Amino acid sequence: MSFGPFLLLALMEGMVTSAVLALAAVGLSLVFGIMRVVNVAHGEFFMLGAVSAWFVSQWVPGPPAVAFVAALILCPLFVAAIAALADMVVLKRLNYQPEATIVATIGLLYILQQAALSFYGPDARPVPAPFNFRVQLPWFGYSGYKIAVVAASALVLLGVWRLLAKSRVGLIMRATQYDRETARAFGINVDRVYAGVFALGGGLAALAAVLIVPIQQAHYLMGTDPLLLSFIVVIIGGLGSLRGTVIAALLIGLSDGVISTFFAPTLAKIVATLLVALVLVFRPQGLFGRRAL
Amino acid sequence: MTSRLIGKSQSRRSVLTGMAAGAGALALPSFFPGYTHAQSSEPIRLGFQLHRTGIGASYGRWYERTATAALKVLNEAGGINGRPVEIIFEDDGTDPARGAEVFGKLATQSNCDLVFGALFSHVVIGTAPRAAELKVPYLVCSEGHHVASGMLNRWTLQPGITDVKSQVQGMAPWVAGNLGKKVTMIFPDFAFGHDHRDYFTAAIAAQGGEVIAQIAIPPTETSFTRYFPQIPAETEVIYHVMVGPAVLTFVKELGEFYGSGARPQLFGFIDSLEAVDIASPGLEFLEGSHFWEGHPRVKQADASEHEVFYRAAVGVDDNGASVTDPADVATYAHMFSTWETLFVIKAGMEAAGYQGPADRQKLVEAIEAMTEFAESREHPQGAKTFNGKTHQAFGLQSITQVQGGKLIRVHQTSLEDGYYPDEVDYTSQSF
């Protein structure tokens, strides 16, 4: 393959990776930004989204597209409910202390993973894509669905941004992030905001998973990779910064696509990890994060 | 200080006395052979190191079913030496560290007479040293060349399945003669994949062919398109072998990558599609491509009565899926190894007059003395020879082609195709 098409493939792969990364990381970033909770179980919410999408695809009759749309609505709601429950039952009881919540979410990670193993089983199962459309370029073919994932991801991110920046719910969230005590003094039910934010984070992870599962298959161990990559993206972008998350996802995704296509996927992972180390040394708050007070 | 020294020497003496008594007790039956039949009819307990979870889970599911079916046949025919047999399954998570722990648990806590059944080569390599430490026979079903290469030890044997070196050597002439000579290999980046890389590269070179690119992929990878641009344009044959939960994604993405454009011939190890329905959406491009199968998943027109019996006993339909769920496709090309290994254990224990753990060494020696297995109910995959020096079985390999969505055999190797000079003589090693 000559250089041009080679680069095109690398960029397309990179865009898909970026889209996946941004979607997976935005929930993690949101939860940290507003609640100051490092949610180690975030990858398991992603996994739950994919696994529940498989169940939906089995139960909903008709063409795959119908089941897919159903999964797109039901799975994020289901996972959001679990996340809200986890917040109320576990995190709230710990008063959101940073150290305690890390340990608690590690526990949550194992509980969710083993629950999936018990109820879903150890196998990887395919979920059919809503459409099987292939783009045939002169040099190689490419999945039309993957391109759709990039577009869908952009839409979701736009939606999250609008929610935070333009809506009343977003205003309340930002007020809580800015100063929890004052927000409470102004009559904001902080407990409910926290439960809602944690649910939103989980729901976004699940939404990302439903979009991605037709190109990956659902498996009970699939949450580990998105978790690591989300942390990489969020650390580079700056914890709590939506803009930083998206830009870091693009940076990591495209460099991953180009490096792994032209050199080796392992090298791409090395570079991403090195970037994290450099950011932590020279700009600990991340590219777009604010310095902690 | 003095008292402690005295205490120590006393306890050592008592231990030595105990050991001597123990050794005497162990030696007794051989002095009085008549006593051996005064044994209990307690069940023989076989440990099974099962990949129930982790990346080998789809294999584990079927290995458990196959071994259970074989056990039923075995017990209905009177067990081993007239004693009933039990299999204790223990999940190793397809993980080498856990594999060694599970081995110890089976051998010491569950009091198993031996352990068998492991497939994934990294688990086998991680567990085998433990087998030698505990002096417990370890009968693996792993395909890896690590048994016959001399890497492992006298307690580890592979009587139920041919190793990769023999498989690829047997098939290389057909690949070079029918598909092409410029080969690009795609394989998982661990011991099993490295066996493919090393021995197929050598075998195709011996046929005047050449491996022009070797693409290693981590077995936990979930996205594969980025690897495909490394396939050189002049490739005539893509040789692919993948394992792990993402195999279906791998093959689908390969199909998407070539799309409707020109593509090289495909020769795959069925591992790339074990437990996956060949009629899955997105796999249409495989029509006409070729696969290695240790044991063809689709019932062939010339299937032997033994093969028919085996298929029914395990509960597999003519397409290679579970009789109760057509979507549950078997790991048919590999799982016969657990069935056949169980019957080798039976033959070995009966030849050794096996009574209990004290006869473990005799069992290993009895299996080492075996030379061939005839095609039979006990060996439904076909006739095999066994090399006691290298602890390795050699069997027939099938090359099948996807014809109308079914895998139909187009070539079968002979036993001689897969022979290579011995690389080790385990029988010269001490126990």
From TrEMBL, chain A:
InterPro entries: ABC_transp_permease, BCAA_transport_permease. It comes from the Bacteria. It is a multi-pass membrane protein. Its main location: membrane. Belongs to the binding-protein-dependent transport system permease family. LivHM subfamily. This is Branched-chain amino acid ABC transporter permease. It is found in: Cell membrane. It comes from Albidovulum sediminis. PANTHER family: AMINO ACID ABC TRANSPORTER PERMEASE PROTEIN, BRANCHED-CHAIN AMINO ACID TRANSPORT SYSTEM PERMEASE PROTEIN LIVH. Keywords: Amino-acid transport, Cell membrane, Membrane, Transmembrane, Transmembrane helix, Transport. The chain crosses the membrane at residues 6-33, 45-61, 67-90, 102-122, 142-164, 193-215, 227-254, 261-282.
